[in-house]
Design brief:
Elements lengths: L1 H9 L9 H8 L5 H12 L3 H11 L2 H24 L8 H33 L1 E7 L5 H9 L17 E7 L2 E7 L9 H16 L2 E7 L6 H9 L5 E7 L10 E3 L2 E6 L8 H12 L13 H19 L4 H19 L5 H8 L7
Parallel strand pairs: 1-3, 1-4, 4-5, 5-7
Antiparallel strand pairs: 2-3, 6-7
């Protein structure tokens, strides 16, 4: 194969640039930009759900949703421009009501597309989940149970975990990065102290923090201090481990406490509820609804369009400003499918493709 490739290059051929075939398809109008990006998403898909979402985007489902939004905005802008073309005519209440109704429909459709895109983005980046708790509460045992294998060292000795241990798992096809950290306590040991500092840094970056406590023991001052230090951003789930040591205490969730779950890393009791809570806390919906494997730039464009539509709703009595906000929202949407995309952005997008593809 190397000899054949060398002969082709000697005859005047060259190696394809990263993403060149897909970029040509986009420039020739065979694919729009969102579909072209879906080619790379399909190649990089790390789960079955991610591959399915990428295939839907490649087939044009995401683009169709965005194009439908653009068409609705075009109709609303046409109505608005028609009014602006005749400034001597007074805008009556009928025009205002029609514009208000159309705008409400566009905003509802945009919210639905954004929600599907946010759920789908989880399939790309995964959810960053960090265990936090005092030494020997069972964080490492819980990680091993969720991972399905012995990934973390578990001993009765407090302070066994000194550094952050990451493990990639999947729950219903959703990728989750689970991080086990050092037990949070004051320690004279220099290595353990560094591990605790790293643990707090991991907690600060987490999407979801699993604060692990012991089900058979009272929550003491040290635990209250730890809970008080947890960041307000993100999601916090209280996991009461070792429920097998607490007679009469059932495992699982409590209807009265939506962010608490009782589990046993030893027996596995309550872990299925914990898995469900992780999916719910991340915003994932496993009800069979379609999701769009949206990229960060897609989410930013949709969020920008949403902000302009919100501002447009406040400018209904001032048609010039109303029309401008609609134009800006429309411009944000067209960047998703590439109807208007700067050349430098195209270079950045296709540079991330594998060679040729």
């Amino acid at each position: 194969m190397q000899m054949l490739l060398g002969a082709c290059l000697d005859a005047g051929a060259r190696i394809a640039h990263p993403g060149e075939f897909t970029r040509r398809a986009y420039l020739e109008g065979r694919l729009d930009l969102a579909q072209a990006e879906a080619v790379a998403d399909l190649i990089d898909a790390a789960s079955r759900e991610a591959a399915r979402s990428a295939l839907r985007s490649l087939a044009g489902e995401f683009s169709t949703a965005v194009d439908t939004l653009s068409a609705q905005l075009t109709e609303l802008r046409a109505l608005t421009e028609a009014v602006l073309d005749f400034p001597q005519e007074e805008v009556d209440e009928l025009h205002l009501e029609e514009a208000r109704a159309r705008l409400a429909r566009v905003r509802a459709s945009l919210d639905e597309v954004l929600a599907k895109s946010q759920r789908g983005s989880l399939l790309r980046s995964g959810i960053h989940v960090v265990f936090a708790g005092r030494p020997n509460v069972g964080k490492s045992s819980l990680l091993n149970k969720l991972a399905g294998e012995e990934r973390a060292i578990v001993t009765p000795v407090a302070g066994t975990t000194r550094d952050a241990l990451r493990e990639a798992i999947q729950i219903d096809g959703v990728p989750i990065i689970v991080v086990d950290t050092a037990g949070l306590r004051e320690s004279p040991d220099e290595v353990e102290r560094i591990g605790v500092e790293r643990a707090w840094r991991e907690v600060a970056r987490a999407d979801i923090v699993l604060a692990v406590l012991e089900a058979h023991a009272e929550v003491g001052p040290d635990e209250h201090e730890m809970l008080a230090r947890l960041p307000e951003e993100g999601v916090r789930i209280l996991v009461y481990n070792k429920v097998d040591l607490a007679p009469g205490v059932p495992a699982g969730r409590r209807p009265s406490a939506s962010n608490e779950v009782w589990v046993s890393a030893k027996t596995g009791a309550g872990l299925e509820d914990l898995r469900r809570m992780l999916l719910e806390a991340s915003g994932w919906s496993g009800d069979g609804q379609s999701t769009f494997l949206a990229r960060e730039r897609h989410l930013r464009a949709l969020a920008l369009a949403r902000r302009h539509l919100e501002e447009a709703a406040l400018q209904l009595e001032r048609w010039e400003f109303f029309a401008e906000e609609l134009r800006l929202a429309h411009s944000a949407l067209t960047e998703i499918t590439g109807a208007f995309t700067p050349d430098d952005l195209l270079g950045e997008i296709f540079a991330r493709f594998c060679i040729g593809k």
